[in-house]
């Protein structure tokens, strides 16, 4: 195990690396072939169905015995995975292909991860069956590769939403849930009528649509007034489209404003925003929202990628393997949303303001 001080140093350096990667942006990957299509990628998109509320089976009351049996640890780390474009041929280091997304989601499902939204995670509303692990799937920028409807009103194949639905159809218990953080032209749609139809479909099927600023600037370079303007203008759009007011926000490039509080709450020309969670760009699993040191104003994420270059120790393949090798560090649910179940040794790490009952074993 690495010491907390060592982790703090490397995480700081990792966040700088991730932000720098995003700002220089879309570095071309010379000669890297697109991942081959699988048989699954040729399947028809399943008909969308309303996502059930994230409610565990009725009657679950966690006890010390039941928590011990599933090795519950609701102060463990949670992977919040960050995606950008989902394209057939990667042109940037942060792009993923449909086949790569399918492969990662299939692996998560087989390993026992259950998706929850960023909103649910930030609010501490984690309703996952006992012995399972929450994962938060997040998509930045509202790219057309994330979601679209064809002329018949069906989800376009090979989009992120289509692949999430396919994975849920294959794996019982894998909730088709994700968070899409958008800018002023969500999913490449040009009219508010089209945008509203897309948002209505997404929110009606259990997905979260939230704030990624109006124009995707580096907030660190802006005055506090301009930071508030960027967030408030996006809030107005989200409200008009039927998705607002948002409860979460992702920082463009993972770059925090000079006045940190302005990212989480503020007012501009009569429009107020107030977020349960502000999300960074990397580069390790997040602390549990019940943990004493959890910072709602700077929630960690992991870039989806393999173990190459800077991603050898910072991206999703590395961290998912690390969590499998260190199961005692991973968030494991007790199945009871009214209790926080933890090994007794972790009792002192729970945030003092949590109103839920502590179930230590």
Short note summarizing the structure:
With 361 residues, the protein is an alpha/beta fold.
> Structural class of the secondary elements?
alpha/beta
Rg, rounded, reads 20 Å
Fraction of residues in H or I helices: 25-40%
**The first-level CATH class name:** Alpha Beta
CATH superfamily descriptor: Glycoside hydrolase/deacetylase
**Beta-strand percentage?**
5-15%
CATH architecture: Alpha-Beta Barrel
User: What would the average pLDDT be, to the nearest integer?
Assistant: 88
Task: State the domain count.
Answer: 1
Q: Major β-sheet, in short?
A: 6 strands, parallel
How would you sum up the global shape? globular
- What is the succession of H and E elements? HHEHEHEHEHEHEHEEEEHEE
Number of E strands: 12
Q: Number of helical runs?
A: 9
Distance between the termini: 23 Å
Notes on the protein architecture:
- This protein has about 350 residues and is an alpha/beta fold.
- It has one domain (about 5-25, about 70-360): Glycoside hydrolase/deacetylase (TIM Barrel).
- It has nine helices and twelve strands.
- The radius of gyration is 20 Å and the shape is globular.
- Mean pLDDT is about 90; it is low at about 1-50.
């Amino acid at each position: 195990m690495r010491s907390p001080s060592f982790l703090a140093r490397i995480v700081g350096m990792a966040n700088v690396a991730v932000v720098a990667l995003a700002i220089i942006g879309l570095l071309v990957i010379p000669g890297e072939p697109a991942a081959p299509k699988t048989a699954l990628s040729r399947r028809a998109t399943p008909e969308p169905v309303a996502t059930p509320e994230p409610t565990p089976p009725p009657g679950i009351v966690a006890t010390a015995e039941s928590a011990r049996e599933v090795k519950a640890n609701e102060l463990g780390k949670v992977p919040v995975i960050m995606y950008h474009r989902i394209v057939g041929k990667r042109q940037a280091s942060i792009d993923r292909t449909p086949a790569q997304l399918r492969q990662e989601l299939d692996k998560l499902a087989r390993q026992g991860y259950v998706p929850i939204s960023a909103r649910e995670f930030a609010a501490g509303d984690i309703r996952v069956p006992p012995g399972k692990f929450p994962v938060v799937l997040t998509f930045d920028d509202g790219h057309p590769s994330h979601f679209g409807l064809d002329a018949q009103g069906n989800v376009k194949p090979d989009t992120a939403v289509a692949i999430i639905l396919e994975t849920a159809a294959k794996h019982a218990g894998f909730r088709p849930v994700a968070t899409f953080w958008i800018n002023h032209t969500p999913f490449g749609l040009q009219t508010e009528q089209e945008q509203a139809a897309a948002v209505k479909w997404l929110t009606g099927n259990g997905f979260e649509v939230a704030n990624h600023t109006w124009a995707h600037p580096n907030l660190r370079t802006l005055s506090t007034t301009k930071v508030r303007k960027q967030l408030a203008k996006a809030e107005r759009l989200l409200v008009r489209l039927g998705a607002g007011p948002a409860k979460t926000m992702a920082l463009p490039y993972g770059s925090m404003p000079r006045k940190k509080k302005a990212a989480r709450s503020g007012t501009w020309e009569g429009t107020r925003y107030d977020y349960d969670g502000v999300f960074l760009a990397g580069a390790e699993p997040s602390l549990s929202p019940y943990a004493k040191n959890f910072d709602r104003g700077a929630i960690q994420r992991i870039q989806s990628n393999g173990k190459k270059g800077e991603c050898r120790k910072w991206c999703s393949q590395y961290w998912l393997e690390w969590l499998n090798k260190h199961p005692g560090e991973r968030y494991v649910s007790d199945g009871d949303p009214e209790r926080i179940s933890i090994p007794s040794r972790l009792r002192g790490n729970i945030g003092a303001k949590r109103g839920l009952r502590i179930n230590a074993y």
